[in-house]
Amino acid sequence: MAPETQGPPPVRQLTVLYDADCPLCVHIRHWLLGQHRLVPLRLVPAGSDEARRLFPALDHAATLREITVVGDSGQLWTGTDAFIVCLWALAEHRPKAEWLATPAGRPFARGAMYTASAWRQAVRTGPGAPSAAGTAGEETGEAPEAEEAQGTACGDHCPPSR
Questions:
Q1: How do residues 134-152 score in pLDDT, each as one tens digit?
Q2: Which of 8, 91, 121, 139 is deepest in the core (most CB within 10 A)?
Q3: Residue 128: CA atoms inside 13 Å, Cβ hemisphere, count?
Q4: Which ranges constitute the DSSP H helices of the chain?
Q5: Distance (Å, rounded) from C-alpha 98 to C-alpha 93?
Q6: Distance (Å, rounded) from C-alpha 72 to C-alpha 127?
């Protein structure tokens, strides 16, 4: 009899750490909660007392800069991988997530994250909101187009106009 090989543990629940001071992140949180989920999602404000209690070893400052998802067995996804795993948890979007995880789809996932990051920089409110000097392009090492995307947002809910 061949020895059993054990793969990674199955994901039974995901905790999404989102920026509660970002209107885009709050909108996506509500959208996620309205979707049919194949994997339960727990949405917790990044950097909150609850997040610190649940994940004491996590770099909580980093979770405010980049989307972070934690699996129930300690798996950790950030940035583009976190975006893909959130879609993977949703019934309607799992096939798209599986494609985005491929070499052909990954550039599209990175592009979506880059766009969301630029938008987020423009509309984020509350303590610790980034200044004009902290653009998404500087955080990711991307091209300076992020500076253009950081125009003025209307209120706290609209992306900057181009």
A1: 433 333 333 333 222 323 2
A2: 121
A3: 12
A4: 23-33, 49-54, 60-65, 79-88, 94-100, 106-123, 136-140, 145-148
A5: 9
A6: 30
Helix, strand, or coil here: 107?
helix
Name the burial class of residue 146, with classes exposed (0-12), middle (13-18) and buried (19+) by CB atoms within 10 angstroms of its CB: buried
- Check the CA dihedral 24-33-7-51 and report its sign: positive
Q: Rounded to an integer, what distance in angstroms lies between the CA atom of residue 148 and that of residue 162?
A: 8
* Encoded tokens for 66: 């980049």
pTM over 0.90: no
Angle, alpha carbons 153-139-130 (nearest 5°):
40
